[in-house]
Every structure is written in structure tokens, then in C-alpha cells.
Specification:
The structure is a single chain. The protein is an alpha+beta fold and 212 residues long. The chain folds into 2 domains: 74 residues, no CATH class; 116 residues, no CATH class. Helix content is 51%, strand content 17%. It is built from 6 helices and 8 strands, in the order E-H-H-E-E-E-E-E-E-H-H-H-E-H. The chain has a 5-stranded antiparallel beta sheet with strand order 1-2-3-4-8, covered by helices on one side. Strands 5-6-7 form a 3-stranded antiparallel beta sheet, covered by helices on one side. A hairpin with a 3-residue loop joins strand 5 and strand 6. The protein is elongated. It comes from Nocardioides mesophilus. This is PH domain-containing protein. Keywords: Membrane, Transmembrane, Transmembrane helix.
Length: 212
């Protein structure tokens, strides 16, 4: 007799959402950091070299927390919105609304939780605002052309930002069905202690080298 299927592990990610910007800049910055550290090891074994190495490490850490670390990961019952040094853990069943502007926004009541790693570019936001602010006097021919253009865009592909919102809405619905009659839980913030510690130690060490 076969055993019943086991329930999904709530601690296992069900969807990892990649950042929509900053990846190229981030990896370029990390490559520059590695290059500078290599230069110091080979050519600058001195106090000035130590200062340069610590400056490079600090630069690399800032690139990491600002460009590469921010992202979102969904679990069975909650979603983690990673930002620079503080992460939001939001119960999916508690989410009331999801939207994407320049950041990914999750609303729980009147409180907004954001992920800076996922969002529309400034250019996309300007284009969207122009479409929303279309003058009332626009001719019907122009209006039909704009509608046709939007329809063609929808047919070609769904933007990744739209996919993120759609997928999260699906996970919210699933979480609500599973937790029906139960409390959704409270959203909370968690500091990224490894990054906080690394930034603090490196900054202090760099400042000390300036006094040498």
C-alpha cells in the first residue's frame, strides 16, 4: 500500500524571482574589486596598498548590497523581500495588494513592503504615465492605435515584472486557501547581519588606515 504524498516543505522556496536591474553593473563592480585586490597583492604591499584593498572591499560590499542582493523569494506560506541590509518577511495570506512601480510593492493593510531589486525602469514608468495621462482631446484614430499597440505587446510577451505580480497573486490565493480559518501571521523585518557586520568592520578598518 503506497503512503500518502507528503506535504510541501514550508521552508523550501517555491519561486525565486531574479532582479530586474543592476545585475550587469553589480558583476562589473565585483570584477573591478577583484582586480584591485589582485593589484594590491602583487604590486602594493604597503600601508597605501592596505588602504586601497580595504577601499576596494568596501566598494565591493556596497555593490553587492545595492545591486545584487536585493531580490524576492517566495515560500509556501511567506515571501522574503531582500533589500540592502534589511529583509521583509511577509505572510502570503496577509497580503492585500501587489503592484510594481519602480519597486515591487506588497500591501498589508495600510503598510507597504518593498523590494528594490524588482521594478520598472524610469523610462518604463514615464511611458506608462504618458499612457495614463493621455489627453481627452486625443482623436479616436490615435486612441485605437494605442489600444492596438498595447494588445500587440500583450500578445508578444508578458513582461517579467508582470509575471512576478501574477505569480505572487497565485501564491497568495493558495496560501489563503491553505490557512483558511487561521491567522495569517505578522510581517516582520530582519536585518542582514552578515552584510551589516562586514560593512561595519570594513568601514572602521578603512577609516583607521586613513589615520596611519
Amino acid at each position: 500500500m503506497s503512503s500518502p504524498p507528503s506535504s510541501p516543505d514550508p521552508s523550501r522556496p517555491v519561486e525565486r524571482f531574479k532582479p530586474t536591474s543592476g545585475v550587469l553593473l553589480g558583476y562589473t563592480g565585483l570584477a573591478a574589486t577583484v582586480f584591485l585586490l589582485g593589484y594590491v597583492v602583487v604590486y602594493a604591499r604597503s600601508v597605501d596598498g592596505l588602504r586601497l584593498a580595504l577601499g576596494a572591499v568596501l566598494f565591493g560590499l556596497l555593490v553587492w548590497v545595492s545591486q545584487l542582493r536585493p531580490r524576492a523569494t517566495a515560500y509556501r506560506r511567506h515571501v522574503v523581500l531582500k533589500n540592502m541590509v534589511r529583509d521583509a518577511h511577509v505572510p502570503l495570506a496577509a497580503v492585500d495588494e501587489i503592484s510594481v512601480g519602480q519597486t515591487l510593492n506588497l500591501w498589508v493593510g495600510e503598510k507597504r513592503y518593498v523590494c528594490i531589486g524588482i521594478g520598472n525602469s524610469i523610462r518604463e514608468e514615464v511611458r506608462s504615465r504618458r499612457r495614463r495621462d493621455q489627453p481627452l482631446g486625443t482623436s479616436r484614430l490615435t486612441e485605437f492605435a494605442l489600444r492596438a499597440d498595447r494588445a500587440n505587446n500583450d500578445e508578444r510577451a508578458m513582461s517579467y515584472q508582470t509575471f512576478v505580480v501574477t505569480r505572487l497573486e497565485e501564491l497568495v490565493d493558495e496560501a489563503r486557501r491553505e490557512t483558511r480559518g487561521q491567522e495569517a501571521g505578522q510581517a516582520r523585518y530582519v536585518l542582514a547581519w552578515p552584510e551589516v557586520a562586514a560593512l561595519s568592520v570594513t568601514t572602521v578598518a578603512f577609516l583607521v588606515t586613513l589615520l596611519l
